[in-house]
């Protein structure tokens, strides 16, 4: 009798398995990153549902939670040595839902719908740019001839950062900014600006250097700093997220300068 579900094949079987027709069992650790990714998809889609209900505070929280899970699944896959092509493809599809569709819908339902068709077009452009950005990222991962230092940079603003940036008008509204036609127009312009940043060639720090070894002298200050950040996040979430967006945008020129400096060093060494 044929099984009701196909066998789960996260990666290509080796020649011995393929010739024998019997695939070995999959370790449970292989599923952990995929389950985290599924949790992120659920969080992103729930954000859309919450926005339809007018519960924008919780919608933002759901997208932030999806961004946290997105950062966890890749790290868990590397930690557990369970990275697979299946997981990479599912992660990319999840990012499109969570950081392309969800923020576009949330911002449209919050303020862009005041612009009617124009607001919907802006939401569509943002979602499409998110899709294009992720497709380009997947292709660039396969480029074998990139210098090693370039792995510390993304090309364009990454999708999770773009989603959190695009929601800046919602943060400001939750702080107390009144909605109006002018606010809707400015929100539309800002969302288009973020969409442009995602598909641009702007080099942005990837943060992959974070997580390496650190000096013993800064362990305690680092722990205190992280604790303070968590306190501010829970005490003043919308002000904290607004500040985070401003700081991130302010770092972009420094990221470009660092990229240009390293590129010039490569050019001189090649000569």
TrEMBL record:
<feature type="transmembrane region" description="Helical">
    <location>
        <begin position="156"/>
        <end position="177"/>
    </location>
</feature>
<keyword id="KW-0443">Lipid metabolism</keyword>
<keyword id="KW-0594">Phospholipid biosynthesis</keyword>
<keyword id="KW-0472">Membrane</keyword>
<dbReference type="InterPro" id="IPR048254">
    <property type="entry name" value="CDP_ALCOHOL_P_TRANSF_CS"/>
</dbReference>
<dbReference type="InterPro" id="IPR012616">
    <property type="entry name" value="CDP-OH_P_trans_C"/>
</dbReference>
<dbReference type="InterPro" id="IPR004533">
    <property type="entry name" value="CDP-diaglyc--ser_O-PTrfase"/>
</dbReference>
<protein>
    <recommendedName>
        <fullName>CDP-diacylglycerol--serine O-phosphatidyltransferase</fullName>
        <ecNumber>2.7.8.8</ecNumber>
    </recommendedName>
</protein>
<feature type="domain" description="CDP-alcohol phosphatidyltransferase C-terminal">
    <location>
        <begin position="217"/>
        <end position="253"/>
    </location>
</feature>
<dbReference type="Pfam" id="PF08009">
    <property type="entry name" value="CDP-OH_P_tran_2"/>
</dbReference>
<feature type="region of interest" description="Disordered">
    <location>
        <begin position="1"/>
        <end position="20"/>
    </location>
</feature>
<keyword id="KW-1208">Phospholipid metabolism</keyword>
<feature type="compositionally biased region" description="Acidic residues">
    <location>
        <begin position="8"/>
        <end position="17"/>
    </location>
</feature>
<dbReference type="GO" id="GO:0003882">
    <property type="term" value="F:CDP-diacylglycerol-serine O-phosphatidyltransferase activity"/>
</dbReference>
<keyword id="KW-1133">Transmembrane helix</keyword>
<keyword id="KW-0808">Transferase</keyword>
<feature type="transmembrane region" description="Helical">
    <location>
        <begin position="31"/>
        <end position="50"/>
    </location>
</feature>
<dbReference type="InterPro" id="IPR043130">
    <property type="entry name" value="CDP-OH_PTrfase_TM_dom"/>
</dbReference>
<dbReference type="InterPro" id="IPR050324">
    <property type="entry name" value="CDP-alcohol_PTase-I"/>
</dbReference>
<feature type="transmembrane region" description="Helical">
    <location>
        <begin position="214"/>
        <end position="232"/>
    </location>
</feature>
<dbReference type="Pfam" id="PF01066">
    <property type="entry name" value="CDP-OH_P_transf"/>
</dbReference>
<dbReference type="InterPro" id="IPR000462">
    <property type="entry name" value="CDP-OH_P_trans"/>
</dbReference>
<keyword id="KW-0444">Lipid biosynthesis</keyword>
<feature type="transmembrane region" description="Helical">
    <location>
        <begin position="183"/>
        <end position="202"/>
    </location>
</feature>
<feature type="transmembrane region" description="Helical">
    <location>
        <begin position="117"/>
        <end position="135"/>
    </location>
</feature>
<feature type="transmembrane region" description="Helical">
    <location>
        <begin position="93"/>
        <end position="111"/>
    </location>
</feature>
<keyword id="KW-0812">Transmembrane</keyword>
<comment type="similarity">
    <text>Belongs to the CDP-alcohol phosphatidyltransferase class-I family.</text>
</comment>
């Amino acid at each position: 009798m044929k099984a009701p579900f196909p066998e789960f094949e996260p990666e290509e079987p080796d020649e011995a398995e393929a010739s024998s027709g019997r695939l070995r069992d999959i370790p449970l650790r292989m599923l952990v990153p995929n389950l985290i990714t599924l949790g992120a998809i659920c969080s992103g889609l729930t954000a859309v549902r919450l926005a339809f209900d007018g519960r924008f505070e919780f919608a933002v929280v759901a997208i932030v939670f999806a961004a946290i899970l997105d950062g966890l699944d890749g790290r868990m896959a590397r930690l557990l040595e369970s990275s697979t092509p299946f997981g990479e493809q599912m992660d990319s599809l999840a990012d499109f839902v969570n950081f392309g569709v969800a923020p576009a819908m949330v911002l449209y339902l919050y303020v862009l719908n005041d612009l009617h068709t124009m607001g919907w077009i802006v939401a569509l452009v943002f979602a499409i740019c998110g899709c294009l950005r992720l497709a380009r990222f997947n292709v660039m991962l396969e480029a074998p001839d990139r210098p090693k230092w370039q792995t510390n940079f993304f090309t364009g603003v990454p999708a999770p950062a773009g989603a959190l940036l695009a929601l800046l008008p919602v943060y400001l509204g939750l702080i107390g900014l009144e909605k109006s036609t002018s606010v809707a127009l400015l929100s539309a312009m800002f969302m288009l600006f973020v969409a442009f940043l995602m598909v641009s060639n702007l080099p942005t720090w990837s943060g992959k250097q974070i997580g390496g070894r650190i000096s013993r002298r800064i362990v305690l200050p680092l722990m205190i700093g992280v604790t303070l950040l968590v306190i501010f996040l829970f005490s003043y979430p919308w002000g904290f997220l607004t500040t985070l967006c401003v700081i991130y945008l302010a770092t972009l020129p420094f990221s470009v300068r660092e990229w240009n400096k390293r590129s010039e060093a490569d050019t001189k060494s090649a000569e």
